[in-house]
């Protein structure tokens, strides 16, 4: 699911941090599965996860939350 900036802005700082951790964990699991010869996940899913992580980090930097 694509995170939109409106949704990210509405989240509290704790929710953003939790969402960021969840996205990074999911990305890690997909990469680990692919490297170990598991079923190949749709590459667009990986791209979408990376973009969502970047959106959250960008917003957090903009408001000096990090």
Class computed from helices, strands and strand pairing: mainly alpha
The backbone outline, from C-alpha atoms, is elongated
Q: Averaging pLDDT over every residue, what do you get?
A: 90
CATH architecture: Orthogonal Bundle
Number of folding domains? 1
Largest sheet: none
The strand count comes to 0
> How large, in whole angstroms, is the Cα Rg?
13 Å
Percent of residues in beta strands?
under 5%
What is the share of helical residues? over 70%
CATH C-level label: Mainly Alpha
What is the count of helical runs?
Answer: 3
Poorly predicted residue ranges: none
Order of helices and strands: HHH
Alpha carbon gap, first and last residue: 24 Å
Under CATH, the topology can be stated as: Helix Hairpins
Q: What do you see in this structure?
A:
With 66 residues, the chain is mostly helical. The protein has a single domain, classed as Helix Hairpins (Orthogonal Bundle), CATH 1.10.287. It contains three helices and no strands. Helix 2 packs antiparallel against helix 3. The radius of gyration is 13 Å and the shape is elongated. The mean pLDDT is 90.
Break the fold down into its secondary structure elements and pairings.
Elements: H1 5-10, H2 13-35, H3 43-62
Please give a quick description of this structure.
This protein is an all-alpha fold. It has helices spanning 5-10, 13-35, 43-62.
What descriptors fit this protein?
66 residues, mainly alpha, Helix Hairpins, 3 helices, 74% helix
């Amino acid at each position: 699911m694509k995170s939109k900036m409106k949704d990210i802005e509405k989240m509290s700082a704790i929710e953003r941090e939790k969402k960021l951790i969840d996205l990074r964990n999911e990305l890690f699991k997909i990469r680990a599965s692919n490297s170990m010869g598991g079923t190949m996940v749709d590459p667009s899913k990986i791209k979408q996860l990376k973009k969502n992580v970047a959106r959250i980090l960008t917003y957090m930097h903009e408001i000096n939350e990090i």
